[in-house]
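Hi team, as promised in this morning's meeting, here are the two structures we talked about. I've kept the exact order from the run log so nobody has to guess. The first one is mostly here for context; it's the second one we should focus on when we meet again. Sequence first, then the predicted structure tokens.
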Amino acid sequence: MPEPKRVLVLCTGNSCRSAMAEGWINHCLSPVWQARSAGTRPADAVSPLAVRAMAEVGIDISRHRPEHLGVYLDQPWDLVVTVCDAARELCPVFPHSVRTLHVSFPDPADAVGSDEERMVSYRATRDAIRDRLLPELAGLDKR
């Protein structure tokens, strides 16, 4: 079996969207793709609501810790995906030639209200990542 393709998923805080995308990719597209995620300005922790949203679909991201993208700059990647517009603007040039893809999602951390009201946004973002990003990566695998 060939080595998995490596994808780095970037967003600003690495606490919601990119962490959820990493979880989806590793859960659904392994062993073809292997994902890591990072942020341009990493948060202190993953959002508990993101952890909860992913747990609802059987994916555990509770051990994820936000990391700065600088940790990954010198590593070889097959693909770098930005999942927010701010990360796209701040995405550095990687030393190794790497393909990039931008698929933006709303930040569920911007939601207001009770946890239950905010979970609506987390679930919508979680499902949008599954419905839009996973087919993109699956399509790239066939090219």
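And here is the second protein, the one for discussion:
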Amino acid sequence: MASKKVEAKNRSTHMTEANGNVFVDLGFSGSDAIVMQMKIDIHTEIVRIVRSKRMKSRELERLFDEPQPRISELMRGKIAKLSITKLTDYAAKLGIRPKITFERSRAA
């Protein structure tokens, strides 16, 4: 019973309204946050397609012309070192083409 009281005391009661981009909410600058979100969006679609087609690592190695460790990193979401260009290239080889849309920010 005492542990529940301590647990309740340690909970944060401060909440900040979400911006719509988790990277902005985490404090990254506008353009960095946008690029990070774009990379996540492209990666998410790549993984969705690969899983829906039940593609194996060996198939991806040949298709993307990348060694197995790079494929493993890609599939595990380790995309920090990958450029948007490289992710877009992977997407194109899977038969998908990312599309950019624009929207006004709240600050504009």
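Starting points for discussion:
The CA atoms of residues 39 and 84 lie 6 Å apart.
The chain has six helices and no strands.
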